[in-house]
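Example record

One chain of 241 residues, shown exactly as stored in the release files.
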Amino acid sequence: MANRGPLLNTEFGPYRCMRVLGDGLNHTLYHALHRENGELVALRTIPLDEEHVELRREATDLLKRLKSILSAYTVPVIDFGFEGETLYIASRVMKGGSLETRIQRHKASLEHDSKRLDQNNRLGWPTPASCLRVIYRIAQALDDIHMAGFVHGLVDPINIMFDEHGDAYLGEMGVSQLTKILFNLGNTNSFYVSRYAAPELWLGGRPQPATDQYALGCLAYELLTGEPPYSGLSIYTLMKQ
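Predicted structure tokens for this chain:
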């Protein structure tokens, strides 16, 4: 399923693609407008190589379940559908960007302003109180997801988004499960590991609620200290820590 590339002004269902937000190996993310009501959404498009009734049925069932999750702490799935051989998924636009962007911006400010750097100067890093608000909201999001029978599997700063008021939300719900369906990875336990991954995932274990909670603990450590609990330039280095 190779990505066929971004296509501005292309229409998927009721949405017209206006701007490319990201272009990955197997998907493209757009800002898109609903043609009838003018709503701006984040639209993910995933090309499918061929018509596959069973694949579409499984993906549809999963996305219906995701859409039914009622949580004040997750980025909701607004709509989804198929346009030809492309699956599209519409979600809320998060105008405050991601936690990953904020972390990288902070690190860049440290490098730029290294003369002021010392152990007592966090140079704009969030206060402990604001860090705890983020942690609380993501913990609530995970509770809601787990109660609905899902495991997130991708708790990571890049998937924590902020609205225009600075409130944090957990995004990318169901992406790991959808990836398994679309890419025929049904027998694969863990195919995504990062510095926030629980030890059992490094050994091929199946993601479960506890692994989400472990990732949140790592995230909390990084927010409160300014550094992740484990770091390294390679997967091997991370595994050995």
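Notes: The radius of gyration is 19 Å.
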